[in-house]
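Re: the pair you flagged

First of the two:
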Amino acid sequence: MAGSGRLTTHVLDTMHGKPARGMRLDLLFVHGDHTHHISEGYTNADGRVDQPLLDADQFQHGIYEIHFHVGQYFERLGVELDNPFLDVVPVRFEISADSHYHVPLLVSPFAYSTYRGS
């Protein structure tokens, strides 16, 4: 049964001090030891995906992952690294209430952080 919440994200490129435009991400639903791909998207000029990753029609409680394609993003920008480090950053989280879940990512080629935003 669908809930009344929604899921959004926002990616900030801390290396360049701006939103991460054009970063690919995948949303997956976790079932025990396997996942189901729900959707993919790209961030806009503000570092956000134009539509919620989940809205009231698809929203349900459970465990999710957002896979942020960080390595591909920095490669596309022409960032040359002698020793690449981050490739795909998976963020696993639980949706347990019918509310707005916002999962921001602050990222550079070598580090990232996330939190439950508002």
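Second of the two:
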Amino acid sequence: MIIVNVKENESIEKALKRFKKKFDKTGAVRELRARQAFTKPSVKKRDQVIKAAYKQRLQTEAAK
């Protein structure tokens, strides 16, 4: 359960922004979207490999 204490003289918009930030950090929405459809473990692993290769390529290009 996420608790956001509203400070004195703090606007609701600021408190709501802090709540949204905390909620995003929990990853609840991301997990729900991932659970909507089953992805095979081989597909997950392939996606991870592609993502890692992309990151590696970006780092090598930045180092040049």
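The chain is about 75% helix and 0% strand.

-B.
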